[in-house]
Amino acid sequence: MPHLDKFAAALIVVAVVVGFLAPRDRNAETSSRANPAAGGVAHGAQASGKAAAPIPPRKPPKKRVPPFNLAKAAAAARAVKANELGQVPILMIHRVMAKPKASLDRSTKDLYDEFTGMAKQGYVPVTAAEFVAGKINIPAGKHPVVLTFDDGSITHADFDGAGNPKPDTAIAVVQRVAKENPGFRPVATFFVNRDPFYGGSKPGIETMRWLVRNGFEIANHTTNHKDLGKMSKAEVAKEIGSDEKMIEDATGKPSTTFAFPFGSLSQAHLAWAQSGSGPAKWNFQGMFLAGWKPSDSPYASSFDPRQIPRIRDKEKIKEDDCKQYCSTAWLEWLAKNPDKRYTSDGNPTTIAFPQDKMIYLYSRYKEWACPY
Ligand SMILES: [Zn+2]
Known about the structure:
372 residues; 10 helices; binds zinc ion
């Protein structure tokens, strides 16, 4: 979308300023190498000020069916070094094309190579909605990753004459990697603005329906992609509510997640964005920023569903400190620090982790704890 190119420079300025405001990590499970002041590209921002009331309770994992043997579950978790309080990379991807034109663009080949590498490392995609709901039902020893695509670009989803995804699009890459690597789920989240997938072979409304039918998530990114931090409550409601109405009209259901366009946010703005009514009603279960680090586990006490960090999807270029804070760098870091990474025990009725990490568990999940 053209607005991205236009604001790319502004984003970086915002990111640097925001970096200095970002609070220090509260949770030792978060990366020790993280340095907020170093910034990272942002079109979301960490809010300063007093913490807002948390989003209403997330859904707990599945209920246990008796007989349940905790010692046996713990032994199984230990065998795969499960750590369901570990960090999860959430990739923020903009346009995808054979030959990138702007700094936020990603080449189709780089995306394919990155996703293939993740599949080989045992990453399994979950949608943003699944992640915030704590529905991370992936096999034992595997790691969740969330693939998010911003701004509803035609480069994400477009179709050939036979109705199949064009080979250079994001959906084609996701589906190809899933086909070549069984276990890599072909799911992703698309944060869309007005006129999504404009210029494609199908009207945007049809493309959104195709995506939902094929297991992808459509979610809210505001109608006009403006800085909400500069808006009144009524203006925020209009920006989010009108995007929500478009999504509901197309997909038949409200979106459950949201990504902030760039900008600085107060706690009041976070609260206004989270739920409300405009042309449609909404109540987001998770709100995503741009950020510069992996997310804490949704089961960790430090997890803030209103300000979930994402990582810019990019190789280790110098720009925006990508040598340390973009996806290639973080995936390398997580591979070198497996004890910090989220690893599933494959059991959706437990939250498994090494005993010494018990202090990081969000108290409302104690019933499901499976320390070992
Ligand atoms: Zn955007």
